[in-house]
Amino acid sequence: MSRPARFSLKRQLLIWLLLPQLVLWLMGGVLAFRVALAYAEKTIDQSLTQSVRSLARQVKPMGSGLLVDFPRAARDIIEQDPDDRVAYMVSSPPGSFLLGNTKIPGRTPDLYSADNEPVLYEVVMDGRPMRVASIDLSFGDGFTDQRMRVQVAKSLVAQQRIARELVRDVLFPLLILGAVLSVLVYEGIRRGLAPLERLEAQLANRNMASLSPIEMTQAPEEVHSLANTLNQLLTTLRRSLSQEKRFLNDAAHQLRTPLAGLISQTELAMQEKDPEALQQRLTKVHTGAQRSAHLVHQLLSLARTEAEVSLVPVDAASLAREVAREWTRRALAAGVDLGYEGEDSVMVPADKLLLREVLSNLIDNALRYAGKGAVVTLRTTVHDGFCWLDVEDTGPGVSGEQLERVFERFWRASELPGGCGLGLSIVAEIARRHNGTATAQTTLPHGLTIRLQLPLQPLI
Predict the structure, then answer these.
(1) Known CDD domains for this protein (predicted)?
(2) What does each C-alpha distance from 360 to 267, 287, 327, 336, 452 come to in angstroms?
(3) C-alpha dihedral over 425, 429, 431, 435, to 10 degrees?
(4) Using CA atoms, how far apart are residues 124 and 358, in angstroms rounded to an integer?
(5) Looking at the domain covering 9-164, what would its CATH class be?
(6) Spatial distance between the Cα atoms of 414 and 299, rounded to a whole number of angstroms
């Protein structure tokens, strides 16, 4: 069986908050470098254009020849940057070296420009990329037209240096801001997760003996919601443990007496020599065993009612008729007239097994205590949006003072053997689990009526 994947919420938040920031910073760096290169190239192109026009003005046509007026001062202006290589060349016709400090390759045929308009392109000279500005001029005396090309080349070292400086000046402050933002994000995540750490600490201090609610005085709304949900779970668990403890205590208390009686009667039976006396002892053992079995059955029913129930539509009238038929043979044996009255069909939201347990307990109580010759009626009626399930008997009933105690656990109004005082408490508990109530009232002129009131199934 594979173990569930575990991950740190803090690490996940840091990754999803800081990683996009780093990616955006790198993308910003690349974009800033490209923008810086474009601006640097534009600056170099403007400088080359000015330089090539200035150099072209120093070469003046005279008749069919050229007068080159290019003093040392003009060359120094063009070559003013010692760290940046600058080359220039004048050729006439174009490509035939006339003047300059190096030979510059010509432009490709696909580059065309009108006379007196510079053309910009890139070449590689001595293994170094260079940017070239080239301008073509026409001169002559009208009979023999000639052409002259002026070229000025500048390495791209300056362009890259300018781009690096721009990127550095832009990204370094962004890097500082990113670092500060990362610290703030980390601190914010740490503070934001602090309530969860406090919640974890409080849960770590809980055990089966201490299931008190979690207290969160200062926490975000989401943590409060989580704490409230956990408190509901703790409350349910605390109630379940309390019910389990009470059930075990009740079971131990109630089983102690019949089991002790069984042991005592068995010991006496083992010592009896008279067959008739032995038979009497065995009869008492059998009665005690029946009572113990009935008590265990009732205790198990009580435990089942304290579990969670799932309510589904159930026809209470049909179920009541079915249960009444099941108990008919027992009623005839007890000399009791058992019958059903009421509706043909009544739908209620219920757990069918538990509802059957309720009706069986009520009929069992009535047959047990109503006495021979009594009449027991199982009745189903509808009143004001509720279903009434009544079990009415014409037995001796109970006094008015005892009516309030009939649903208490282990309380018995009669000393007749066989009961254990759990039947009606089970009925009350099941009624509560079905969002209903169980009540007891005296039947005139004598007898007892136990009423189970359940809400009707809503119409869809």
Answers:
(1) HATPase, HisKA
(2) 35, 21, 8, 15, 13
(3) 150
(4) 101
(5) alpha beta
(6) 20
Q: Does domain 310-455 have CATH number 3.30.565.10?
A: yes
Closest CA to 439 of 429, 456, 452, 426: 452
What number of residues does the chain have?
Answer: 460
* Residue 136 and residue 147 in contact, taking contact as beta carbons nearer than 8 Å: yes
pLDDT single digits (tens) 232-270: 877 777 777 776 676 666 666 556 656 666 777 787 778
**Hey, which residues does 388 pair with through a beta bridge?**
381, 453
Q: Which residue has the tokens 């009623």?
A: 331
Q: Residues 169, 172, 173, 174: is their CA dihedral positive or negative?
A: positive
What is the identity of the amino acid at 82? P
- Which residue is associated with the tokens 């003005």? 57
- R_g of the chain, CA atoms, integer Å: 52
Decide whether 9-164 matches 310-455 in CATH topology.
no
The token pair at 213 is 């609610």
For the chain, which residues make up each domain, given as ranges?
9-164, 207-307, 310-455
